Amino acid sequence: MGKVVTLGEIMLRLSTETGIRLSGAHHFQAHYGGGEANVGISLANFAHEVYFASKVPDNALGHAVKRHLNSYGVSTKHLLFGGDRLGTYYMEAGVGERAASIIYDRAYSSFAEMTTLEWDMETLLEEVDILHLSGITPALSKSWKALVMRCIQIAKNHEVKISFDINYRGKLWSQKEAGETIRQILPYVDFCSAGKMDALYLLGMKEYKGNEDELIDYYQQMQKAYPNIQLFYSTKRTVHSASAHTLVGTLWMNEQYYESCVHVMDPIVDRVGGGDAFSAGILHGILEEKEAQTIVEFATAASALKHTVHGDCSPFSVEEIESFMAAGSGKIDR
Amino acid sequence: MGKVVTLGEIMLRLSTETGIRLSGAHHFQAHYGGGEANVGISLANFAHEVYFASKVPDNALGHAVKRHLNSYGVSTKHLLFGGDRLGTYYMEAGVGERAASIIYDRAYSSFAEMTTLEWDMETLLEEVDILHLSGITPALSKSWKALVMRCIQIAKNHEVKISFDINYRGKLWSQKEAGETIRQILPYVDFCSAGKMDALYLLGMKEYKGNEDELIDYYQQMQKAYPNIQLFYSTKRTVHSASAHTLVGTLWMNEQYYESCVHVMDPIVDRVGGGDAFSAGILHGILEEKEAQTIVEFATAASALKHTVHGDCSPFSVEEIESFMAAGSGKIDR
Amino acid sequence: MGKVVTLGEIMLRLSTETGIRLSGAHHFQAHYGGGEANVGISLANFAHEVYFASKVPDNALGHAVKRHLNSYGVSTKHLLFGGDRLGTYYMEAGVGERAASIIYDRAYSSFAEMTTLEWDMETLLEEVDILHLSGITPALSKSWKALVMRCIQIAKNHEVKISFDINYRGKLWSQKEAGETIRQILPYVDFCSAGKMDALYLLGMKEYKGNEDELIDYYQQMQKAYPNIQLFYSTKRTVHSASAHTLVGTLWMNEQYYESCVHVMDPIVDRVGGGDAFSAGILHGILEEKEAQTIVEFATAASALKHTVHGDCSPFSVEEIESFMAAGSGKIDR
Amino acid sequence: MGKVVTLGEIMLRLSTETGIRLSGAHHFQAHYGGGEANVGISLANFAHEVYFASKVPDNALGHAVKRHLNSYGVSTKHLLFGGDRLGTYYMEAGVGERAASIIYDRAYSSFAEMTTLEWDMETLLEEVDILHLSGITPALSKSWKALVMRCIQIAKNHEVKISFDINYRGKLWSQKEAGETIRQILPYVDFCSAGKMDALYLLGMKEYKGNEDELIDYYQQMQKAYPNIQLFYSTKRTVHSASAHTLVGTLWMNEQYYESCVHVMDPIVDRVGGGDAFSAGILHGILEEKEAQTIVEFATAASALKHTVHGDCSPFSVEEIESFMAAGSGKIDR
Amino acid sequence: MGKVVTLGEIMLRLSTETGIRLSGAHHFQAHYGGGEANVGISLANFAHEVYFASKVPDNALGHAVKRHLNSYGVSTKHLLFGGDRLGTYYMEAGVGERAASIIYDRAYSSFAEMTTLEWDMETLLEEVDILHLSGITPALSKSWKALVMRCIQIAKNHEVKISFDINYRGKLWSQKEAGETIRQILPYVDFCSAGKMDALYLLGMKEYKGNEDELIDYYQQMQKAYPNIQLFYSTKRTVHSASAHTLVGTLWMNEQYYESCVHVMDPIVDRVGGGDAFSAGILHGILEEKEAQTIVEFATAASALKHTVHGDCSPFSVEEIESFMAAGSGKIDR
Amino acid sequence: MGKVVTLGEIMLRLSTETGIRLSGAHHFQAHYGGGEANVGISLANFAHEVYFASKVPDNALGHAVKRHLNSYGVSTKHLLFGGDRLGTYYMEAGVGERAASIIYDRAYSSFAEMTTLEWDMETLLEEVDILHLSGITPALSKSWKALVMRCIQIAKNHEVKISFDINYRGKLWSQKEAGETIRQILPYVDFCSAGKMDALYLLGMKEYKGNEDELIDYYQQMQKAYPNIQLFYSTKRTVHSASAHTLVGTLWMNEQYYESCVHVMDPIVDRVGGGDAFSAGILHGILEEKEAQTIVEFATAASALKHTVHGDCSPFSVEEIESFMAAGSGKIDR
């Protein structure tokens, strides 16, 4: 089992039930989540030793975050309490042709307002196998751009592997600004979640034409640009409607390209955190030193299962995911 | 922006949740709606000045109707309070192969029992662009047959355009009785919602054979019979199951036939009011003097969106519908 | 109308809502059901005189069972009160690719612990047309293996027809043990629910190759082995996902094979009790002396409808099922 | 055990949850009830043989009524199906100083519109010990005034005892009209639920001054006026707020006056049906030939318990009520 | 009927159900409210012409605010759309000995960030009878301190009466800061909600000893200090527990002191907005030129009723309040 | 901060909502709890290092137990997974005069069936300050009687203090059997929760007459009998109804008797776990070496707060309890 630190923001999601609009909602479902927290919870469910580093206000919402993480066995030893508020966002559930709709209310959060690495970095990174970060954190503020770089450098000094999920959000920064920052980060990264869009717009690669499995080409280009990166991964998601997607996992590892089988997700219960469940599946495979094809199949199955439950995080164990992979779609055992 | 009056009955719908039968229900969802009220709400959401003329009892249910309409910005200046009861109906939600099932309990309602036009008709119709009525109102009573005709004549005197939705309901009157009444009304109508069934059974046209897009032919026949009508419109709905329909909007305007793209509605949250959302989309296009193809695409998109929310009325604004038309099915913007 | 006794265990099912896992559930839906009780309720809904014979604890849960059965008109004159507990099971609702997951907690129940036929068997079986049993009962204990045989013999002495649903559950006994017991029972059976799996593994028949409609062959073999059995029936279910199945009913009667039309069940609300609704449909056809094709169409429609409602039992009447068969999928009548 | 017929109207109650007003409700709780049905259910829970005679529409709501009654073991052999609608009423739950608020919508119901006694009266009253009626039924229509008298006369011919609950409702008829009708009925009554208000305003007795336990005096006067009546009973209810009442049961029997101990009901869950539970308790005591003090204590305890559960009817058994009487307020047994 | 403008912030309240803590909540009830908005809604329910002036973000939450106000007939002609966010706060429901607990998250809201009076003040104040403001608005920012003064001066120039609710909140500003600001405002105020605490700590009056009805003395002192103020009012609330309060309204008018009868509020459904309902009751009395005692009784009854419903605003009409005053606690009319 | 091990059974509680009976419930609330687990959670909320030792099945319900404990920071390092089932019990919520009603279904649970101390006792008890046990565990089986003694002896060898809550349950064993076992345990106990009933019936002491504060006398007798016990504690609970109790904490320490102030708990949300919250408060005081009066006030406040939240365990921190003690009943801070 590995020792992993994930560092990032965690927010309160307030969402409506299917068929109810935000402007007509009389109550909201409450879920706590964030990419790095979600990855951490999945890895804890896979029996790794996981620490989530973040900062939340010292009030009932901050305590709810702690309870949420602890309930899945994630250590909150490095969860700081302080600052003014927990970032929130409102989500109107999508269904059929109508996509989900999101209102962000995350500015001025305890985490976004951090200006120094308030953790004891020595303790935080001691004997850690992987530090997982995402492109959302440097997008939060100028301070965080610098802090993320500083954090990565300290981790490198402790021989910690860097896992980085580009996770570009157009509502947080421009492609230009994102590109500049991410290009500074990638030379230190070991495992990278990146897709075609990231390659084209953030990393400035050129569009490849003429091949169906076009991801191979982008992965090759990225590998050339960043030979330090051991593997690239992302999912290919076909959106038929808000309620039905197909999902294929892709992995570039050891200079080869791998794809999972196709998962038909219909109906989707909650797609938030689907990508994080995939990332956690990949990192689990790395920590367990599995074969590439095994890794990508497991990660994609983990992601597909996530879409069948409410909430941001995936509550499934390794045994449950493997038994799901063996059973076939919708088969019940009585 | 236009000024519109819609006049008709509004009822309380008591419906079960998916998978629950009426005979086993321990609670009911409450929604207020009626074709003309629903059209009014949509048009108010599209920023027109809308008045809903009706009559409801002077009790908490009547007041709930007022609050419902006001919440969407529909004026209830012409909503009368009096009479004995609010019409109700019970709806067992359909799902998959099992269709929804309805029990009407609308007899003796405050509106149905009206015997005179209790409104100050001068004030009601002053500077109004469109008066929207439906075939449900004359079906309610002998009095209402006469009152509808009277109402249309006064409107005509005020140079108000008449919008009429045939909306035939077999549980209210026979095809024969409906046909007689509607044929008296149509010579005064400017905009008419009518489909193939209306043409055949109500208006006594003959079935056309040999063409896929058979609606053209019916529209042509109707146009010939009622040259006063500026446009005809209706939707072509393919019912795959109670949970999945496809929808195409059709429009006959300026002696030409227009069809919208196909909307795949799967799953359907609530189909009640889908036709009213379409009608409102058409009337909006007329008031805004849009092109025919734009009108029918907008109206069909409005109708498709309605199917994704609970309740009888469509809560979507022009901006939301146009952004939906631009985005494609189920695409989320983060 | 016929007089029917169904005898078996009834349990409390505690299930989660879609998208909620057992380990994260804060409340459970409560439903009471069991194969024989479900068949009984359907037959009572079809206006037959039905008695359910079982044993439940003399506490609020036992009384809830009584109220459940009485509410559908099933007589509980032969429902015994005593013993220690009501068997329960927990069900995590499946959705999309993720199947439902079940935890049984049924050991030591009032019914399973029975060691004698505590009913007055004379009264129980007097003028009864059909006694319906299933393979679950003899699987519960050594005592019940003997009691089931004894029960069947008394019934035969009273010229009661025996309906038997093999209903093999791998969590209760091995195929070997089940096979030995069931082969002792079948020589006394008149109507038998059995599928390909039962033929192969329980009854030791050999696999047939080369024909699409392979059930014919198994039914022929079973008929040869047990010429006393008047008819065999089962459904062919194709599981696309936990949310979407197709269903075809099959029937072997008068040495001929019959199949129903195909029912597409999408989405499925609750599949528990789908087989029992089918069995009840078949037994209704027998009691009413319908044609074979009519019987299998009715039974399959009854089963398809059951999948659209929550709970273990089918609440549909003969009129509702026939009207459903006439209407076509999802068509609403207004 | 006795054999009892209760005859009257049953309605659908649509009520809000505490703190929600009718005009702002998005869903309603559904309960079925009516005085005579409630009395019948209690008596069935007390193990008597009970038949409820009424008429409901042949639709899902009528079938729900049947399931409701059957679930408590009340026979619906004499429940007629037909007519147009089920009477309904809306109830805004009261709390604290704010009383509950009710909107009746019961006109034109299947029962109210009856003009003949559609039951086979011979079968209905055969070997019946008690026929229970209330003053609500003759208030429904002129027809019902005559039918009630006719019904009572037939019952008398069959030596059936008449139980009559005056149950005056000012929203249904005037005190004058009620008084005239009820004075015709009382000479045939054996057991009568009547309070001070009934004595004063309906029966024209004069107000008695100078005694705290003033009910004695009214009972004495009533006894003198109607010597045929074996016993009178009613509750003295002190309304502190909508959430807290105290309740004392009173009984006039064998020319003596009896009172129960005081029940403090705080908080009240649902007061609808509290009087019916009391009546059923009295009738049970009569059927079981209990002592007067025992009867009134039991009936008042039954009524007090009713106030602790949602719904119109009392679900408590004799054992539960007696164990409640023995335990003292709020004591739990672990 | 009067014409009233209320101006202030409106927020989204996210609250838990009774017995659920914020840190363990899986969903939140959503209510929109703010002192000035609540006063406005009550006055609209009392049939006055009411405008609410505020600023909310142009997103679904802002639109929900609009729908909320419109549903009660408050005009949102002067509701501005813009800025970044809607202020929110989280409320853990109190019960029994445990008080409610609140987390404010209102900084940086669209309203709080305003730096100019963005309304067309001429239109806003034209022919307005009363402008209602509270001490919360100047507490929001330095800008708002100035804007409130400016607003009051413009109103005075238009001969609009100023209603001011001191409404001191220790979490927003210190007593010293509040006192300085409020002492600048009071010379322009016509109707003032102020209690003993306001007199002592904000206005620097000295504590009076020796009289039970001590409020008289404070009102006298305040009247001397601010002879321009026509009336002072506040409630005396005795908190027995979070679930039970007693409430007495007080009013100083025409140099005399008035008190309402005592309202026992037990249980309390939702105390938020109780003070605003009282203020609205007072303003209604002024607009209608009622007697002092009538005013304070009506206002206190309005406030007591508010405590019986969920949400920030009082949905009661004049008729409902008067009928409540006439009926007595918890009496139901059937 | 101290290090504490609590050892005992944890069960799933399935309970109804207020006003709903078990026999009519359509869903159940799910809570996990047990005396020793509840004490452990409270102590973890008070920032002590807590381990819960027990055994649960290796299925979703067992995993839910783990998540529940972890969410409050209790270590599940010593939670064993295995055996057949999780003990359950059903609870019908009490209200007003009607007490809660419980059906136990706990036999054959994974914990009850244990026959050896399966933990590594060295690791379990290493450097532990307090081991907390209750009288429920030896009541479960003959094996557990022996295992509890063995466990206590090993703890004593490790110089671990023994906390013992007598917690007599008449449904598990007789007073005679309990007395014999408990008298064997008490000579090893350091901190003992025991009340008058325990003194009289289990420990064979004689009833004391003539003194209001009779608990002093029993504590004195118990102290004489078991001079090894450092302190005795229990609550005096007056049950006014299921919804309203008063609570006083009592403590015998250093040969003196202490009582807390009176807490009025009205309404009670959930009384389950009230005693455990009190015990945890006492143990916290001991670990923190507080004064006796401080200890009993804190413990009683903790218990009173527990009654205001749903669920078996108390979620309150030291800060929250102390702030509650300072504030007074129902006072809110804005």
TrEMBL record, chains A, B, C, D, E, F:
Keyword Ribosomal protein among record annotations: no
Statement: the UniProt record of this protein carries the keyword Zinc: no
InterPro entries registered for this protein in UniProt: Carb_kinase_PfkB-like (IPR052700), PfkB_dom (IPR011611), Ribokinase-like (IPR029056)
UniProt domain Carbohydrate kinase PfkB: residue ranges: 1-315
Domain of life assignment: Bacteria
Keywords tagged on the record: Kinase, Transferase
The family this protein is said to belong to: Belongs to the carbohydrate kinase PfkB family.
Protein name per its UniProtKB record: 2-dehydro-3-deoxygluconokinase
Originating organism: Lederbergia ruris
Classification lineage: Bacteria, Bacillati, Bacillota, Bacilli, Bacillales
